[in-house]
Design a protein that fits this description.
The protein is an alpha+beta fold. It contains 6 helices and 7 strands; from the N terminus they run αββββααββαααβ. It has a 4-stranded antiparallel β-sheet. It has a 3-stranded antiparallel β-sheet with strand order 1-2-5, covered by helices on one side. The two termini are 22 Å apart.
């Protein structure tokens, strides 16, 4: 699905729903269960439309500060939100890898969406849990702000995750 400028958030959601349906149909045809997390950013003029399912993340960098925009769809995130565990306990929570929303888990999906203003000089990072599962926000911010280009930042982030034995796929796009 190719987005047009006028599509905005509805186009982003439509794209995710279409991808979900294709994955779901493929699972049915092969009698397998698979799922995938997703994070998508559609930038148009001074607005970013961010949609996601799972624990892939979107970060906004502005004025030497980092903002975690997405909210993980995971059991551990729900436990944190309810105050049942602390952030320190979350690091070792036995079911921290349980995702509560992902592509392919069912015929239909309702991704979360956030609309935010962007300005000249902002930086963005979209990443999978293979990165944010081993690099905390402080480390991600440090690597981003110590890199000269988005490509250098992404390479450094992926290398950090690999060096720290990430057990999941690692994706970083800046």
């Amino acid at each position: 699905y190719v987005l047009k400028h006028s599509d905005s958030s509805s186009g982003v959601i439509k794209s995710i729903k279409k991808a979900n349906y294709r994955i779901f149909e493929e699972c049915l045809s092969k009698s397998v269960e698979i799922g995938s997390t997703i994070v998508v950013a559609y930038l148009y003029e001074d607005v970013a439309f961010v949609a996601w399912a799972g624990d892939s993340r979107f970060y906004l960098f502005r004025d030497k500060k980092m903002e975690f925009v997405t909210e993980d769809h995971s059991e551990v995130a729900e436990m944190l939100k309810l105050g049942k565990i602390t952030s320190d306990e979350a690091k070792y929570y036995p079911r921290r890898n349980i995702i509560t929303k992902s592509l392919g888990e069912g015929k239909f999906i309702e991704p979360s969406i956030e609309e935010l203003s962007v300005i000249t000089g902002d930086g963005i990072l979209l990443c999978s849990d293979g990165l944010c599962g081993v690099a905390d926000d402080k480390k991600i911010s440090e690597i981003i702000y110590n890199s000269n280009t988005p490509e250098e930042a992404c390479n450094s982030l992926v290398n950090y995750a690999l060096e720290n034995n990430s057990r999941d796929n690692i994706t970083a796009v800046a």
